Amino acid sequence: MSEEPERAIASPASFYHARSKECIGNGTFASRSYGAGEQITALKRPLVGSLDTGRLRDTCANCYVWTEGSSIGSRLYVKEGTKVQVCAGCKRFRYCSLVCQKEAWKRGHKHECKALKPISDREIPKAVLATMEILIRRKHGLIPDEIWQMLCQLGSHIEDFKQNGKYGGIELMAMGTSQFSWTQDTFNKDFVAGMYARVLTNSMTLVTPTFDPLGIIIDPILGHINHSCAPNAYIVMDGAEAAVRTLRPIKKNEEIFISYIDSTNPRARRQSELEARWFFACQCSKCQKGAPLDEDKWAVEPLNIPKKWKKLADEMIDIGEEWAISPANHVGDTRDDKRLAAIQGRAFQDYEEEQGIAVPEDAIKKIEDDMRLCSQSGLWPIHRQPYAALRDDLIVNMLAVGNYENAWAQCAKRYRYILPKLYPQIHHPVRVVQTWQTAMLALHIAGEPTSMALPGVDMSYIAFMLVLEVLHASRLSHGEHSSFARSVQGKYEEMAAVFKTKLGPKADEVMAKEMPQQRAYLMEMGTWVE
Ligand SMILES: C[S@@+](CC[C@H](N)C(=O)[O-])C[C@H]1O[C@@H](n2cnc3c(N)ncnc32)[C@H](O)[C@@H]1O
Question: Among the atoms of ligand 1, which is closest to the Cα of residue 153?
Fold first, then answer.
């Protein structure tokens, strides 16, 4: 192979591959013991990353800096004024600097650019673009044999696609991939179909450090990590760098697991999603235990479903609503279990519909309606899905329309009741990022005249307290040297300096006295909204 792509594994001896005891095929195992919040390994960049169509316009195709990042606080690590410029050749990818453009060029874009140029006006799905890049780079000797072999070892699930009737679509996409990439002379059509299917079934979401989705990544090392609904590790991204970090301590020779899905969902939904997208029946330790674990608990026993909701559920079952009878919502076999399944199905259906609404004002209306189903039925504990996920979306949309005070009440509630329940580890990356969002909102409110002012409440203290919490947790969740942790550190220092100026030499003393009281106010605010 010619030119070695720039791709370094921080510590190749930190893990090894061997047959998995829990899962199908091989898995990734720890070569030594790790504490909670430690990095196992980091890749300078995954083998291939491919942006969502919407992100091609505002995100660097090399370092994945999202220049237009939305929610409060999510852009702190993006340098002010960062813009992306389109590649004059392919007119598809954009770069934030000449350095990024050169890196991408060397990695393979010099070949890909020529192939993409004649089709610059066509919208091409991200999985096709990712497959094209893989084929082009391999054809031109830019993927070394060792990496290529590992990639080809990942399951393509062609037989599964043939069985579920989707193989026709895959063949069609593969045909386009072949033609567009000018690689027909190197790879035959079955091979390309296999590679495209491999991308579909082994890709992970490309995210910002605050977990905003940007596209997909595919990497043979990350792709060899099995799934668990009770993972002991996760992947965190910092620009193009992808690190595997521990959620809890991992012993030497223990298997490393990440979660491919939202593992806060009820068991049947998790199982269905894994089966549908990755073609396996999850055998993780959590699924083995069966329901009901926390994710599956209802606020009332099935027997005690309020009459009105029983009636509604019966109607849904009688007319055969798909969600009412879908295995994804399975609760149990009694009539009442089936009623619960129908109501839950409706809630998830509403959640999916809400996510397709682009206008924030419309989304808010829909989400509030959907949340009413969960709250008024009295069936949902506050942390049960999709109630919690609806609240997350409500916050994002309220922030988008500048409805900061209501967003704050929701954030305070989530902080008090939901985050500790869904993410018990204080350094769980989702908990850290959502706490960060809450901190930045508090800071924003502190700087505005507000009708929320309660006697004694000082939002700047609350913001500072939350930033301090994130500062400690981010070193474990993202790593001390990550751009996220460094941004949090920067914000902390900035705020500490303001307090010092305002309070003078007694600043530390005053703050130590004030903090517990402000924390109590924060907790009280968590009870403001139903
Ligand atoms: C991305 S690959 C992971 C590596 C794979 N085990 C291998 O040998 O290359 C995903 C595949 O691993 C298996 N797998 C991963 N997690 C699993 C789990 N929790 N239970 C059962 N099989 C699992 C399934 O066959 C799945 O399609």
Answer: 9
Report how many domains make up the chain.
4
For 356-401, write each residue's pLDDT tens digit: 999 999 999 999 999 999 999 999 999 999 999 999 999 999 999 9
At 253, which CATH number? Answer: 2.170.270.10
Q: Are 163 and 257 in a shared domain?
A: no
Q: Flag whether 386 is in a domain.
A: no
Q: Is 149 within the bounds of a domain? A: yes
Distance 300 CA to ligand 1 centre (A): 36
Ligand 1 test: best mutation among 21, 24, 255, 287, most atoms within 8 Å of CB? 24
Q: Would you say residue 31 lies in a domain?
A: yes
- Run of H or E residues at 364: helix 360-376
Helix axis angle for 507-525 and 483-503, nearest 10°, is 120
Rounded to a whole number, what is the distance in angstroms from the first to the last CA of the chain? 62
Question: Which atom of ligand 1 is the closest one to the Cα of 228?
Answer: 19
Instruction: Say if residue 339 is in the same domain as residue 433.
Output: no
User: Side-chain half-sphere of 494: how many Cα atoms within 13 Å?
Assistant: 10
State in Å: Cα 224 to ligand 1 middle. 8
How does DSSP classify residue 230? S
pTM as predicted: 0.92
Predicted-complex ipTM score = 0.99
Block mean pLDDT (10 aa), the chain, length 530: 39 84 92 97 97 96 88 63 94 97 98 96 97 98 96 96 95 96 96 97 94 95 95 96 97 97 96 95 91 88 87 92 89 92 95 94 96 94 97 95 93 97 96 96 87 79 96 97 93 95 91 92 87
Enclosing domain of residue 459: 406-530
**In whole angstroms, how large is the CA radius of gyration of the chain?**
24
